Amino acid sequence: METSKLIRTESYVNGQWVRAASGKTFDVTNPATGEVLASVTDMGREDTRKAIDAANAAWPAYRNLTAKERSALLRKWFNLILENRNELAKLMTLECGKVLNESLGEVTYGAGFVEWFAEEAKRTYGDVIPANSNDRRIVVIKQSIGVAAAITPWNFPLAMITRKVGPALAAGSPVVVKPPTETPLTALAISHLAELAGFPPGVYNTVTTSDNSEVGKELCENKKVRKLSFTGSTAVGKVLMSQSASTLKKLSLELGGNAAFIVFDDADIDEAVKGAMASKFRNSGQTCVCVNRLMVQDGIYDEFVEKFSKAVAALKVGNGLEEGAEIGPLINEKGLAKVKNHMDDALAKGGKVVVGGKALEGLYFEPTVLAEASQEMIISREEVFGPVAPVFRFKTEEEAIRIANDTDFGLASYFYSRDVGRCWRVAEALETGMVGINEGMISTEVAPFGGVKQSGIGREGSKYGMDYFMEIKYLCFGGLK
Q1: In the Enzyme Commission scheme, what number(s) does this protein have (predicted)?
Q2: Is the pLDDT confidence value at 474 over 70?
Q3: What pLDDT score does 361 carry?
Q4: Catalytic site residues?
Q5: What is the pLDDT of residues 329-373, one digit of tens each?
Q6: Which of 75, 281, 330, 354 is the most buried (most CB within 10 A)?
Q7: What is the SS3 assignment for the chain?
Q8: Residues 264-310 pLDDT 10s
């Protein structure tokens, strides 16, 4: 750690590496071992205001760069991220616990957003609209929105930054990034790479803090911040939305999920098991699009549970840097306590453990299959955010859709069927922003990511992602007789 050229412990503001005015720091620990990895500067509200001021001062010159010039900067950043892929992945595994293969995948995935938006920077087209009279011409252009704040989660410490920062920088908007307390080192590492890529001072800023509420409040209430993008819990998203009301900020909120994974009786069961494994156990079950409710049609329920349980039992638990490790630790004691609470509630309400079911030493929890799950259980309503897979029964297509939609959340859903008609019916009926059809891994930079209901507002990634960092301006040319 100490010899890594990517390790930074100060915040990056206005092209400088700076400490908090208070001199405070906070420790970053490895959830696999409890080891302190580094002490990072602990910025406060006043420090954050300086970062916002720097970004706002940099905005006029940066937005006046040509799209091609901004694209070139992003392309340099993309190349640097890939050149440092191995070191970034190791750093990510150390601070968030995900297994190394997944960290390597995240670096590639996260870099993909930078590459995508480097290309999209040159495609922010407007329109010429047929006018309502012959002496007028109506033109629509898109312009940079201004300073964009990004509040990111610990479970994807690189990709959730690039998914927000990529379109902002492509659009001509300077950024202020607030990474989570658990995983600031990856955020600071890619800030260093952005510095090396040549972004002008003030265009890219990263503020590390343990005082998330106060720094978040500054990002919400400061009128110089024109855009806020947040990924995290629905409860926190509601607070940020309320705090942003005074400035009527443009918001993108990617919030909690409660993903259903439906297996119909005409499905390829082996493929459904593969899809469920990929979706449920990625990052030890700690992602917002992880399967939270496995729903299997009555006629194939026992066969699916048997095959799925066999695959789950074969998963190797261990430190993410260990050879062959597939399930790493949970992020902290609070996360472990939530999994235990969900398990206790499920068992008290008739759930049957087929595989796993117990906490291990440290922050580890056995990958678990919980049969005979019911809608009375907490786990049917709240994300477990851990390696526990409850399996519910259903009888008909209509019942499956009703149960899947019976939630306040609507981020992702999945189902397996070989009936083309059913595929269309169910895909259109599910109340989620994203649907995986015979597919358990749906995230990609080329597709829009986001949810409905209390899973959030807006879309990130894809061509649609640019629009949330731009303003549409209507120009009316008159007197053209």
Answers
A1: 1.2.1.-
A2: yes
A3: 96
A4: 254
A5: 999 999 999 999 999 999 999 999 999 999 999 999 999 999 999
A6: 330
A7: CCCCCCCCCCEEECCEEECCCCCCEEEEECCCCCCEEEEEECCCHHHHHHHHHHHHHHHHHHHCCCHHHHHHHHHHHHHHHHHCHHHHHHHHHHHHCCCHHHHHHHHHHHHHHHHHHHHHHHHCCCEEECCCCCCCEEEEEEEECCEEEEECCCCCCCHHHHHHHHHHHHHCCCEEEECCCCCHHHHHHHHHHHHHHCCCCCCEEECCCCCHHHHHHHHHHCCCEEEEEEECCHHHHHHHHHHHHHHCCEEEEECCCCEEEEECCCCCHHHHHHHHHHHHHHHHHCCCCCEEEEEEEHHHHHHHHHHHHHHHHCCCECCCCCCCCCECCCCCHHHHHHHHHHHHHHHHCCCEEEECCCECCCCCECCEEEEEECCCCHHHCCCCCCCEEEEEEECCHHHHHHHHHCCCEECEEEEECCCHHHHHHHHHHCCCCEEEECCCCCCCCCCCECCEECCEECCECCHHHHHHHEEEEEEEECCCC
A8: 999 999 999 999 999 999 999 999 999 999 999 999 999 999 999 99
The residue among 82, 174, 154, 74 whose CA lies nearest residue 115 is 74
Give mean pLDDT, residues 377-394.
97
Using CA atoms, how far apart are residues 438 and 423, in angstroms rounded to an integer?
9
Alpha carbon distances (Å) from 449 to 6, 175, 288, 380, 401: 29, 20, 11, 23, 22
**pLDDT tens-digit profile of 424-448?**
999 999 999 999 999 999 999 999 9
Phi, psi of 204, rounded to the nearest 5 degrees: -125, 120
Question: How long is the chain?
Answer: 481
* Tokens encoding 68: 């091609």
Residue type, 320: G
Put residue 148 in one of left, alpha, beta given phi > 0 → left and psi -120 to 50 → alpha.
beta
**CA angle in degrees (0–180, nearest 5) for 410-116-280:** 35
Average pLDDT, the chain: 97
Question: Which of 373, 381, 380 lies closest to 347 in space, CA to CA?
Answer: 373
